């Protein structure tokens, strides 16, 4: 189910969702570090909590705002719209990005306060070095590829679980720990904790994330085609299906675009009497049987299957 929400409501959803994500990431990191001195154990706890929380947040806010929670995901949505697909316009993208960034900072401050720490203390953990930036490029490119790939093959419902699983894995297989989120990275700078990042490390990480987003978008285009091509192909398939359905006999299968089974349930099923009474012809067209009309054909009624559905691009990361 998708909720048709105004931009302010969607922005609030992005704010709350991103704040919640940072509370989960930073809070679980603080808790894990306090309970165990073993860095490996702490990372296991932090990665599991982050992945579970992320999946739940995407599931909850996805139908409302798309649950981007990440400026990179928002920018890829904006780019998809510019290239003929579905996505956000420039104004919406700016509002989303601002809401995500403010939400990330707010979530970091809340997590610090929740554990009795002084909110607003900048992180001191420097994360520098080319190998870490390569890790961020890889982490962000993979995230975008997962989201765009599932969206373009028509499996957007899998995105919450897939993104959560990917982040849980990327925290371990990337050298940087898979921040993969400019807003989240800025938020982490406000927490001098296990998951924090010093402000001086922000420019390199954010630049690497933006580069990774571009790379992931390019890979999705190479592997699955452009958004414009996908939409054109979908339209062509619908047109071909409609033509086949008009010409097919009662044995036409469900793949013809009519939405009925192999035995054409509209003609043979319990609704056959209704069709006969309404004057429907064998080709699916309805005939006007009122006196004086001469049985003239009128256009088939529009069904729910003919109404285009919004293509929601869900997404994001810790």
The stretches of 5 or more residues where confidence is low (pLDDT under 50) are: 229-234, 240-298, 307-313
Strand order across the biggest sheet?
Answer: 1-2
Question: Rg from C-alpha positions?
Answer: 25 Å
Assign the structural class, choosing from mainly alpha, mainly beta, alpha/beta, alpha+beta, or little secondary structure: mainly alpha
Describe what this molecule looks like in 3D.
There is one protein chain. The protein has 318 residues and is mostly helical. Helix content is 61%, strand content 1%. The chain contains eleven helices and two strands, in the order H-H-H-H-H-H-H-H-H-H-H-E-E. A two-stranded antiparallel sheet has the order 1-2. Residues 229-234, 240-298 and 307-313 have low confidence and may be disordered.
How would you concisely characterize the structure shown here?
By secondary structure, the chain is an all-alpha fold. Helix content is 61%, strand content 1%.
Overview features:
318 residues; two-stranded antiparallel sheet
Question: What's the SSE blueprint?
Answer:
Blueprint: H1 7-35, H2 39-65, H3 71-82, H4 90-114, H5 130-152, H6 159-173, H7 182-188, H8 202-224, H9 227-247, H10 265-268, H11 272-278, E1 286-287, E2 297-298
Antiparallel strand pairs: 1-2
Helix pairs in contact: 1-2, 1-4, 1-7, 2-6, 3-4, 3-8, 4-7, 5-6, 5-8
